[in-house]
Design goal:
The protein is of the alpha/beta class. The chain is about 50% helix and about 10% strand. A 5-stranded parallel sheet has the order 3-2-1-4-5, with helices on both faces. The two termini are about 20 Å apart.
């Protein structure tokens, strides 16, 4: 049986996200920038916002630990959109072709609820899924099996009917563990090929 439902990740599948886009401007020295992102505003710290921590609390926590870096820490939230230069090339065109073909479209994303609302305002195509499971709203993070099941149960979907798309291999493995088909996203051309292999129009 082929997939009949497509479930997208958002960050680095549909919209680009990389703190380097902002911090190259703020910290021109590569070694200092790497230290800041590895030691102060880390990916682990950012992930707690995806788990549901509010940004004001996150900035306050880092600022208390690293007061000399307060403006740079605040920028992670205040200038978040500078980390998001735009759409991932080709992906949104595929999304729209699937929508036009009548394919049911959903999303599961590790994302701060505050920043996801801002992203939806900036990128209207993020508002047009049948349902989006946002990690911060659920208190669950991919690849926890429960976050995939939340989408399936909430929408009465069979896992085997769904093709899940994510740029993170561990999240792809998590989707397969609950019975979903899954594609490890690298670029739009590879996604288009995977969708054609499932008999889905792109």
């Amino acid at each position: 049986m082929a997939a009949s439902v497509v479930v997208f990740d958002v960050g680095n599948v549909l919209i680009e996200w990389d703190p380097e886009h902002l911090y190259r401007k703020l910290i021109p020295d590569a070694a200092a920038r790497a230290d800041f992102l590895a030691r102060i505003c880390t990916m682990e710290w950012n992930l707690e916002q995806d788990r549901g921590r509010r940004w004001a609390a996150a900035v306050a926590e880092r600022t208390a630990l690293f007061p000399d870096h307060a403006p740079l820490i605040a920028a992670y939230s205040d200038r978040w959109h500078e980390m998001v230069p735009g759409e991932v090339p080709g992906s949104v065109a595929i999304l729209e072709r699937l929508r036009e073909a009548g394919v049911p479209l959903y999303a599961i994303t590790n994302f701060s609820s505050e920043k996801f609302a801002e992203a939806q305002a900036r990128f209207p195509f993020l508002t047009r899924f049948i349902d989006v499971v946002v990690s911060a709203e659920e208190g669950l993070l991919k690849p926890d099996p429960a976050i995939y099941r939340r989408l399936l149960d909430r929408n009465g979907l069979a896992a085997s009917d769904c093709l899940f798309i994510d740029d993170s291999e561990k999240n792809v493995i998590g989707a397969r563990a609950v019975g979903m088909r899954a594609h490890h996203f690298r670029d739009a051309a590879g996604l288009a090929a995977a969708l054609r292999a499932e008999g889905l129009s792109t």
